[in-house]
Recover the amino acids of this structure.
């Protein structure tokens, strides 16, 4: 007993230090803030008009944010300047309690053509056009635009101009975000990190849809696993958008020919077309035919790409655990009754609840 007292006297500072450390760890564990999650959708159609089902989905899931594509920026060869295309219009009012984040898509061929002074001019024109559409289409003139998001799959050749554009835009608006592809997460030492306030991780379009032999270009769990090792260390706060859409792709002589939006296997099989099933989700026409609004030939391959609900649920859970920031916006792409037809109301709600 005496030896124990002597040891304690000699090492009491160490003991008190350990007790304090353990108490601090316990306190941190029990005072850790819950993640703050904002639920959102993308809206990627030119005309804004909500069906009753779409309105119900917004209401049931307490959606507070819509990322709406306002317009594309593309290069006009004849005019030799960037122009706005596919401008948004509104055919129905915005539901109460919803904020709109304007999204502007910029093509790489536009960025390739610009010099430094033209980049500054483009930034000014983007802000003016967004504000003009907000005032005249969305009737938000009484409110300051809270955020603009830029969507661009930049390359090594366009990175300099793109990052300069983002830097210039950031000086003109309260908040700026940009879409981030998976390859830009994994290879950030090559692609760079965009100079924005937040990034939106696009967890879809994972491989080249022009290649017939890809299993699923929209979303494939095995492909996802190859790109997310560096996700936890990405030096930018990230939000997440998952795919909730499907399509068909037509190939002729192993080359991409057409997209068929919102095509499911169920719909394709209901057409009772003259085809054989070549591999999973691929259908080969056995004779010339007209269907789905297309003139199809013998030998054409129709590949249907859908994302099973279980893959979405597991993938969103995995990615949210790897994203380290405490505030997160979780979105689905995109708000469209036909695109969402593969999922029940309950499944859509489960996706949003799963990340909270």
């Amino acid at each position: 007993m005496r030896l124990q007292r002597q040891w304690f006297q000699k090492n009491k500072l160490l003991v008190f230090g350990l007790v304090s450390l353990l108490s601090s760890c316990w306190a941190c564990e029990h005072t850790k803030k819950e993640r703050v999650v904002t639920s959102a959708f993308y809206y990627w159609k030119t005309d804004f008009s909500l069906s009753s089902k779409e309105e119900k989905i917004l209401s049931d899931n307490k959606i507070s944010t819509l990322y709406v594509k306002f317009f594309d920026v593309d290069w006009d060869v004849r005019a030799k300047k960037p122009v706005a295309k596919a401008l948004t219009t509104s055919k129905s009012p915005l539901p109460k309690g919803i904020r709109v984040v304007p999204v502007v898509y910029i093509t790489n061929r536009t960025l390739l053509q610009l010099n430094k002074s033209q980049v500054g001019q483009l930034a000014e024109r983007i802000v003016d056009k967004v504000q003009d559409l907000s005032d005249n289409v969305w009737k938000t003139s009484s409110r300051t635009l809270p955020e603009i998001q830029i969507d661009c799959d930049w390359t090594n050749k366009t990175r300099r101009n793109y990052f300069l554009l983002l830097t210039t835009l950031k000086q003109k608006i309260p908040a700026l975000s940009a879409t981030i592809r998976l390859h830009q997460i994994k290879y950030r030492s090559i692609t760079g990190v965009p100079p924005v306030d937040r990034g939106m991780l696009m967890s879809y379009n994972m491989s080249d849809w022009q290649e017939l032999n890809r299993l699923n270009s929209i979303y494939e769990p095995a492909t996802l696993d190859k790109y997310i090792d560096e996700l936890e260390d990405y030096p930018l706060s990230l939000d997440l958008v998952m795919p909730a859409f499907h399509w068909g792709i037509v190939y002729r002589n192993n080359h991409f020919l057409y997209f068929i939006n919102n095509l499911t296997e169920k719909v394709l099989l209901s057409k009772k077309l003259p085809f054989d099933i070549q591999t999973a989700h691929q259908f080969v026409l056995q004779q010339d035919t007209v269907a789905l609004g297309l003139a199809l030939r013998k030998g054409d391959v129709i590949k249907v790409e859908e994302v099973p609900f279980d893959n979405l649920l597991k993938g969103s859970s995995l990615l949210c655990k790897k994203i380290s920031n405490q505030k997160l916006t979780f979105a689905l792409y995109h708000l469209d009754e036909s695109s969402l037809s593969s999922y029940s109301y309950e499944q859509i709600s489960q996706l949003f609840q799963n990340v909270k």
Summary: Residues 2-31 form the longest helix (30 residues). The chain has eleven helices and 18 strands. The mean pLDDT is 89. Residues 34-245+307-354 form a domain with the TIM Barrel fold (CATH 3.20.20.80).
